[in-house]
Design a protein that fits this description.
With 465 residues, the protein is α/β, with parallel strands linked by helices. It contains 16 helices and 20 strands. Strands 3-4-5-2-6-7-1-12-8-9 form a ten-stranded mixed β-sheet. Strands 13, 14, 15, 16, 17 and 18 form a six-stranded mixed β-sheet that branches.
């Protein structure tokens, strides 16, 4: 009932299994809205929701299985849809619904969610419009965006936590979510911006008397960890389930973030700067500064702030200290700031992801298909608890998801890490924070044959230890 009557523009209801999440969206569509859509990541998965709707109504009268549309006698229209692949969301462009409901929200990409709620509207001024999401804690890195999106309720790192059901207001300014104090509109760059409210309300099997009588809780208690903590207690901090070919285990990333302190490495000179470049668009330019084994908080610049090489180079120069070498991936738009920095005679080293690697892994048994694989594997070896390096990474959930996102395979050329474009398809965004950190950690050798150090003002040795 708390979720049903919540006045939030965007509600996340969920956590543990068995809390009546499907009944909530069915009940809202049947009793409080005129035109609704209920999404699952795969459209065929909506069959269970249709079955529950039929159970509530006592039959399937009015349902068209071919169109996945339920038309009710009162004029209500309920659609059921999916967005299995990136780009499928575009088929819903311009289709208005006063209720946009997402079942198992952590299975959706953030971009898909933001795109689909664009048309949460009605021409009837008396009809309330809202977005309702349900789901359990994410089990893969791809769902970690949900914890950030509803950060005041779900992220223990959030500096201003919220109580369940409490409303918080947000604006999107220059591509970033910004929390504001009230629903009062504000002017930004001459445009009137109207905040939207969010909240999170936890669900539990203990709230559901119907399932409590069937012994379902015992089923949840019998699950292995961390699935037990996620499904029984709705624990959003329980470990995610790693893919068997994941380059960097999530537990190693968590340990590195747990070790991090705000000033833990500033006593050491800056060792290197890694920069992942974006030029305009929805991606960000991310700059990572490393002091020995300690990485500073990431500098994240919306792509609009780095529309050209000069602007990106300026941001990098501001972050750089102690003549630290700057590492830039020349893949994509990295060439322009690289050229700018070189023209200014600032020590800048080109990283070419597709270049040949002559390195071996720590065991000396495996080689690498290219420099991209070598750089990711170096980060893996540095984060390995057995390495003794005690890497300290900033407490950034998106960085955590980025570093846990890459998969690898073993080929005749050696270890191959999937392309950045393949990760983007799965995450729905660029893993720019992880890429910047990996560039800051990468050790260049004089034999790499990249860049040149003539005319550098200092630090002319390519070896970065």
């Amino acid at each position: 009932m708390d979720a049903f009557v919540s006045t939030a523009d965007e509600l996340f209801y969920g956590g543990s299994a068995g809390g009546g999440k499907t009944d909530l969206v069915c009940g809202l569509a049947l009793t409080a809205h005129h035109r609704s859509v209920i999404f699952r990541r795969e459209g065929k998965q909506t069959g269970a929701i249709v079955d529950r709707m039929a159970g509530i109504l006592g039959g399937r009268s009015g349902y068209n299985g071919q169109d996945r549309v339920w038309r009710l006698d009162g004029g209500q229209r309920i659609e059921f849809g999916g967005c299995q692949h990136m780009g499928d969301e575009e088929t819903w462009q311009g289709r208005p619904h006063d209720l946009k409901a997402f079942d198992e929200i952590t299975q959706f990409l953030e971009y898909q969610y933001r795109y689909l709620i664009t048309w949460n509207r009605s021409t009837n001024p008396d009809q309330r419009c809202r977005v309702v999401s349900t789901g359990n804690p994410p089990t893969t890195p791809e769902g970690e965006w949900v914890v950030k999106y509803w950060g005041p309720w779900l992220d223990p790192m959030h500096d201003n936590p919220a109580e369940p059901g409490e409303l918080r207001w947000f604006l999107v300014i220059d591509g970033d979510d910004v929390e504001v104090d009230s629903p009062k509109p504000i002017y930004h760059n001459g445009e009137l911006l109207i905040p939207r409210s969010r909240t999170f309300i936890p669900s539990s099997v203990d709230d559901n008397p119907y399932l409590s009588r069937t012994g379902y809780k015992a089923t949840l208690q019998g699950l292995p960890e961390p699935l037990r903590s996620k499904m029984l207690h709705g624990d959003f901090q329980a470990g995610i389930q790693d893919d068997e070919m994941q380059v960097i285990p999530t537990a190693w990333i968590d340990a590195a973030q747990d070790r991090w302190t705000e000033s833990g490495g500033l006593k050491n000179p800056m060792s290197a700067v890694g920069a992942d470049i974006a030029r305009g668009g929805k991606d960000s330019t991310v700059i990572s500064a490393r002091h020995d084994n300690w990485f500073g908080e990431l500098i994240v610049c919306p792509g609009a702030e780095t529309p050209n090489g000069d602007a990106a180079a300026s941001q990098i120069i501001k972050a750089r200290q102690h003549f630290a070498p700057i590492h830039i991936d020349l893949t994509g738009v990295g060439t322009s700031p690289f050229d700018t920095l070189k023209t200014r005679k600032i020590q800048t080293i080109a990283f070419i992801a597709a270049a040949k690697s002559v390195a071996r892994d720590q065991s000396k048994q495996l080689g690498f298909a290219n420099k991209r694989a070598e750089s990711w594997w170096l980060m893996r070896e540095c984060l390995d608890p057995e390495s003794g390096q005690d890497i300290q990474l900033p407490k950034d959930r998106m960085l955590r998801a980025d570093l846990a996102s890459a998969r690898y395979s073993l080929t005749t050329q050696g270890i191959l890490v999937e392309k950045k474009d393949d990760i983007i398809k799965r995450l729905g965004r660029s893993p720019d924070r992880g890429e910047a950190v990996i560039l800051a950690r990468y050790a260049f050798r004089k034999t790499d044959g990249v860049g040149t150090h003539q005319n550098f003002t200092a630090d002319t040795d390519f070896e970065v230890l």
